[in-house]
Design a protein that fits this description.
The protein is an alpha+beta fold and 287 residues long. The chain is 24% helix and 24% strand. The strands form four sheets. Strands 1-2-3-13-5-15-4 form a seven-stranded mixed β-sheet, with helices on one face. A three-stranded antiparallel β-sheet has the order 12-6-14.
């Protein structure tokens, strides 16, 4: 069953599409296959007004692989509905997501993708940005392509949180705030990775990347910052402005993403289900 089964509207970007007239909870086997094909083709699929339950969101995510974790709230709200102070560790940890990144590159196996949905949103702000690392690679000049072809970088969430000023001490933090912190060797990943389904090269960079072997610390920071700045220019990016009930599915092997700020006094609750990577293709080279 091909993608012509779906009502697909490509975004005004190098990637991504809106899928209309589809209820995720009612997709049959042919519909799921059509979504899977569109996901690989476009990298990002936006499904408006789905209003999924957490079980429905998890079931949809499992159509694309095993789960790294089931639906988890990304929120500035306490259990009683009150809004947390911006200085609290959980809110600091959430602000750490405002840098461009791929999910779980700091773990031995990088995530394949994610399903993300909106339950409570602020009156303005809080969009989620996506950046196409295939288009970013294709935009590199020949000299830069040659210079990064055989380079790798280490990845660490502790590094990115410390650099952004959002580090959470282990004595203050809960389970979510410390997700991805570990004492093992930082995963080493190539700066250019071939997508396992499309066979096309993508940059693999983002805020978690650091410490390129063979370069000094200053040289590594300068190169990675230059690549990140160039990769995330407007023509490679799309920012989704959320409505309650929206769900998105993205390919973490191709896209970086980031949170954007909103009024910290306004409540926001999103649900994130992370799709585990295939160990055969997403395992770090030093594991």
């Amino acid at each position: 069953m091909g993608t012509d089964r779906l009502a697909i509207e490509p975004l005004d970007a190098a990637f991504g599409a809106v899928v209309r007239g589809v209820s995720i909870r009612e997709l049959d086997t042919g519909g799921i296959q059509a979504v899977r094909e569109a996901w690989v083709e476009f990298g990002l699929l936006v499904f408006p007004e789905q209003h999924l339950t957490l079980d429905e969101q998890n079931e949809f995510a499992r159509c694309f692989g095993d789960l790294e974790f089931t639906a988890t709230a990304l929120t500035n709200m306490r259990r009683d509905g009150t809004v947390r102070d911006p200085s609290e560790p959980l809110v600091k940890s959430l602000r750490g997501n405002e840098g461009w990144h791929h999910d779980s590159t700091y773990l031995p196996v990088q995530a394949k993708g994610a399903v993300f949905s909106a339950e409570i949103i602020p009156t303005e702000g809080g969009a989620t940005g996506f950046a196409d690392m295939r288009a970013a690679y294709e935009a590199l000049d020949p000299a830069t392509r040659a210079s990064v072809a055989d380079l790798s970088a280490r990845h660490s969430r502790r590094y990115s949180m410390e650099r952004s000023g959002n580090h959470v001490s282990e004595g203050q933090a809960g389970i979510y705030e410390l997700y991805g912190y570990h004492d093992g060797e930082p995963p080493l990943r190539p700066l250019v990775k071939v997508h396992p389904d499309t066979g096309r090269p993508n940059l693999l960079i983002g805020q978690h990347a650091f410490g390129i072997p063979g370069l000094s610390d200053d040289e590594s920071v300068a190169l990675l910052d230059r690549l990140n700045d160039g990769a995330c220019r407007a023509w490679h990016t799309f920012h989704h402005e959320w409505s309650v009930g929206d769900a998105v599915l993205w390919d973490n092997r191709r896209l970086m993403h980031r949170a954007t700020p909103h009024d910290p006094q306004q409540p926001r609750r999103m649900w994130h289900t992370r799709i585990a990577g295939d160990p055969a293709t997403e395992t770090a080279t030093n594991y």
